[in-house]
Amino acid sequence: MESKRLHASCSRNIGNDSVNKLKMVTRREILAKKKAIQELIKAAYVVKDHIAFSPLFHHYDRNGLSVNLESGRGDKLSVTVKNYIQNLLKQNMEGHYGSEWLVEEKVKRREMVAPEARYIFVQEGIANTNFNKKTMELIAGKTSTSCLENNGPLVGFVHYRFIVEEDMPVLYVYELQLEPRVQGKGLGKFLMQLIELIAHKNRMGAVMLTVQKENLFAMNFYINKMRYNISTMSPSKVNPMIGIESSYEILCKTFNEEAKTTLEDPG
Q1: CA–CA separation, 11 vs 94, rounded Å?
Q2: 140-145: which pairs have CB atoms within 8 A and are 24 or more residues apart?
């Protein structure tokens, strides 16, 4: 009997050792994955100009609209640019937020100047001859956000960041805001395609964004024109009862199977 108990005890110990080793391997894998994701995010933020990879993405000239694009970051904005962002946000979004706007506006003001905030600014009124020179300067890294004030009026911007959602590196679009007079000319689609290219080049698993349900124009644009889906993280997917009361949806476009499984609801 004693030998049988010893044998059983040894078997349990061997079994426990195997389980512990498996847990250690799994933990190492989890930590390694998290570290790799953080390295991707860090590398994305190191890039000074996310649209410098091609001069083609510094200019948009279609449908009677001619504008130039320039990169920026939240902690380098001039007072003039800050005021412009605040005014355009209020003009475009106050009606969609309704009574929530007073609180939301304060949040957006803090978000827009964060060091992590990255921008694509849209300007008009720059001659093509100046554009070619400016493109070369941008690629050489000789410009900064401060030059915006001297090169033509702003007519819109994209605010985006590189973050982690559900253990997945994603590019999150905080804002895409255009003045009404430049809307409906394909510029929004061009900017989102550029954002998706930036996400691809920085090895993000998806592009994500939040849209107010009241903003029917934006919902139609992202879902029907840009082929975004409601994310599994959106209130309406997490809990349909809570989702009914929620004022927003979280949308996403994924670029690989892991991201699709984690962030996108095919239903």
Answers
A1: 67
A2: 141/48, 141/49, 141/52, 143/70, 144/72, 144/76, 145/70, 145/72, 145/73, 145/76, 145/77, 145/78, 145/81, 145/119, 145/121
C-alpha–C-alpha distance, residues 156 and 178, integer Å: 4
Indicate the pTM of the whole model.
0.82
Most distant CA atoms of the chain, gap in Å: 95
Contact 160, 118 (CB under 8 A): yes
d(CA 191, CA 143): 21
- Cα 34 to Cα 31, 93, 160, 169: the distances in Å are 5, 36, 22, 10
- Reported as a single tens digit per residue, the pLDDT across 29-79 is 888 889 999 999 999 999 999 999 888 889 999 999 999 999 999 999 999
Contacts 24+ apart (CB under 8 A), 232-236: 232/262, 232/263, 232/264, 232/265, 233/165, 233/166, 233/208, 233/263
